[in-house]
Fold this protein.
Amino acid sequence: MASGDEGRLRDVVTEVVGRAGYDLEELLVRSAGRRMVVKVVIDADDGVTLDAAADVSRAISARLDEAGDADPTGSAPYTLEVTSPGVGRPLTLPRHFRRARTRLVALTTNNGTQLTGHVLAVDDATVTMVLSGRRGTSQQQIPIADIAGACVEVEFSPPPAAVLHLLGVTPPVEPDDDVITDPELDDQQVTDDSEDADDIDDFEHTVEPDDDGSPDTNGTTRAQEATR
């Protein structure tokens, strides 16, 4: 894709995503054989549900179809992927840190200092972190302009009670050893068919062409990918 076409594609995607109430975090275009893959990463303060990603995917696909000869993707087949940011995504803007509040974040400052702690508060200029170590728990403010790189870390165990208290998070309830559970229930899987699916990072909406060559936007939602 030529740089001019990619610029027009970004304009279209940015408009559609913004109208839907989301921020465009990333737009990636790559070739996969004779097919082009367009990956759109969106986010919002309340996260992105599966249904919302499907709606955005269909809206972008419809807008590109309406462009006709001016479609920046041209006539080549393409796959449109709409996804929310996953763990490990770089945090560069105040809104990124705000949406990572209470999460464990690893960052490196411009002078090479490395810090790992939980995000307590964020404003337009600074991030306040809760740090814990052998000397106890402390708070530290870091100017966002001084951060060279930062990302959310995966936590495999709950943070100390003192950290949870500062973050305003209720500690998890410890299981009661006297409670007898049914072992048969451990093997059951629960399928959530509700509209709330904030923990799903990738949304794909499949759009297959009709017999006349036009896209069929009534694709199957798995996590959402639009294909032409």
Q: What stands out?
A: Residues 181-224 have pLDDT under 50 and may be disordered. Residues 23 and 43 are 5 Å apart (CA to CA). Helices lie at 3-19, 50-66, 94-99, 161-167.
